[in-house]
Amino acid sequence: MSQLDYHNDTLTFGGQALTAIAERFGTPCYVYAERVLTEAYTAYRDAFASLDPLICYAVKANGNLSILQHFARLGAGFDIVSGGELARVLAAGADAAKVVFSGVGKTADEMRMGLEAGIHCFNVESVNELVRLNQVAGEMGRRAPVSLRVNPDVDAQTHPYISTGLKDNKFGIAFDTAFDVYREAAALPHLDVVGIDCHIGSQLTDVTPLIDALDRLLALVDRLAEAGIVLRHLDIGGGVGIRYTDETPPDLQGYADAVAQRLAGRPLRLVMEPGRSLVGNAGVLLTRVEYLKLGEAKNFAIVDAAMNDLLRPSLYAAYHQIVPVVRHAHLPPMKVDVVGPVCESSDFLGKDRTLAVKEGDLLAVLSAGAYGSTMASNYNTRPRAAEVLIGIDGQPRLVRARETLEALLANERALLETH
Ligand code: LLP
Question: N or C: which end of the chain has fewer CB within 10 A?
């Protein structure tokens, strides 16, 4: 991760000692570095510059308002999947005309919200959704801009839970039926067919499947044009994978060049929806060791962050590096499972890690900027962690206060009287 360095054996991120961050904001705490967000965004913008793409940051990766605002200021659009995410991006000052609305289950209310706001387009995933959107738009006296999410039946070769472009996934319109569905869409009076999109999976470290999917989409674009359905944009879905440990992320420029070569001479605006690669390595989860529990079979470092804060290890057996915030020269390293206090055996952040730690130490769980805080829950009635953004000026700012127990209980009602 860039911006992460030891100075005199103390880990700094974005120029700030993580010990000072923990002291001031407590743990567990997500810490993000604005500089890394900017670097990641400009890497996309520069690599794809010849295509002048609309880069729609996938809000689900990290929806903190300060991060959305930062990307909006850099000129980004947004990929949203719910009315909640729409409210979020609008609150962050997004330009609605740069918002694409993905997801298989949009409700009529969410469609109304999108139409009211004037979003760029709805990425539609089924015929029934088209019919509903047509009806909602008609009732509002509007035309809904539509792109069809086509499922190209390409194996993304990533974890099955985050692979989305195969025939047996719930996502998208089957490639073989897509041409007919486009014709149905074009015949509906309150829809404006503007684009095509796909998303085959996340954390891809090889771009070959992405390019295969693009080729399939372009063949369909040509067939549609012959039938008089001329599309204005092509959305290649999510971004490339990142380095968590020893992965080699694809070369962005190589990917961009391959896309540019295929789009050359076509009047198609490029849209993309990167999430993980814009925020993943811009964040760490800071946690404190509460107890060391040394046993015959295993040693455990029981920390104050848990699966409710960072679900990826439990859900996907995902690997996040875990490093000490203060390096002890004279403490012997030992093998530990880094686990949380939640009552589940799957509550771990890392297994069999070699660490020199003692109780009270701080640990940093790396590459936690994407799908970390957004997948957090209140399981075991644990308040959600604080989030801190270290600005370009090196100053840390609290961008999400630690959830209070009052807020956590606020929507619940006890039955005061029984009948
Ligand atoms: N567009 C669509 C329609 C998506 O479904 C996704 C991610 C993205 C864009 C962004 O993809 P990215 O650039 O982040 O690869 N929770 C999982 C990842 C789930 C991804 C779901 N869709 C994880 O923690 O690995």
Answer: C
Structural domains of the chain sorted by starting position, each given as residue range(s) with its CATH number in brackets: 4-32+280-409 (2.40.37.10), 103-272 (3.20.20.10)
pLDDT of residue 416: 75
Distance CA 228, CA 53 (A): 25
Question: Which of the residues 56, 121, 198, 343 is marked catalytic?
Answer: 343
Q: Which of 79, 255, 273 to mutate to test the pocket of ligand 1 (most atoms within 8 A of CB)?
A: 273
Span 21-38, average pLDDT: 98
* Residue 3 Ramachandran class (φ > 0 left, ψ -120 to 50 alpha, else beta): left
Answer yes or no: pTM beyond 0.90. yes
Q: In the block, which residue shows the tokens 């029981």?
A: 302
Q: Any known ligand binding at 344?
A: yes
Locate the ligand 1 atom nearest the alpha carbon of residue 103 and give its number.
3
For strands 29-33 and 386-390, give the pairing.
parallel
Contacts (Cβ under 8 Å, ≥6 apart) of 187: none
